[in-house]
Specification:
14% strand, single chain, 8 helices, Glycerol-3-phosphate (1)-acyltransferase, seven-stranded mixed β-sheet, globular, alpha/beta
Length: 273
Amino acid sequence: MKFVKNIFEIIWTVWSMVVALMIVLINLPILLFFIFIWGEKESRIVDYYLRFCCRLILISWGIKMVFIRNPKLDYSKSYIYIANHRSYLDVFIAIMGIKSYKKFLGKAEVFDWPIIGFLAKRLGHIPVKRELEENREKSYQRILNVAKSNTSLFLCPEGAIFMNDELLNEMRNGAFRVAIESKLPIVAITMVNAGELFPPHKFRIRPGKCINYLSAPFETKTLTIENIDTLRDSVKNEILNNLVKHYPKGKYPIEFNPNDYQESVYLDTLKKE
């Protein structure tokens, strides 16, 4: 039975990749046209069109997105969106779930990829170089400048996709420091089942439902750096409480031996200080 399941998953994954590539290639000229007009400038049309493309891809993959949003969330305002990080599906969730203009962070290497890297550069997303302390500081300053310009950011302060059964790993302080220094409120995003539908450790895409919670804003206007631990713990508890609803045993379902996995760091710039 497991063999049949694996064969089905491989076939479904190949199908999903082929369809996703077709959707990207068909819509690429339109995206390039939008980029030519607006470039890095904020554009609701570009943001809406990217959500449309992501929706098409996920429908073809058989993945249903469910978003449970706190009524206090106001998309006319800018926020620092902070999420747990368990899958490469997370970027789709952020694009679809955050219905306003936002910028992402990514490893510098991603910006060298064909198509994706080009689009990321032209849309003004932020590459992160982590080899040298000087590069990390420059990246942090760029992140902070974007936040201070009243532009929303999407961050994953766990810093990596950790292959273990922890519902939520240690969250680094950098993202919370950005929120406090920019005075932008934080919205916590809890992603449930993303890692099972699009696991990061092997080439698999599975149909299913992905549930995502968007919290009420955590205000930062009156906070200082001395409050950073309290803010981090409040956001972490919000995400953990939502995860426990779906994983009452307090552990994340995992299908492999973590000892065989070499951690891939997603972001070192927002390190714990």
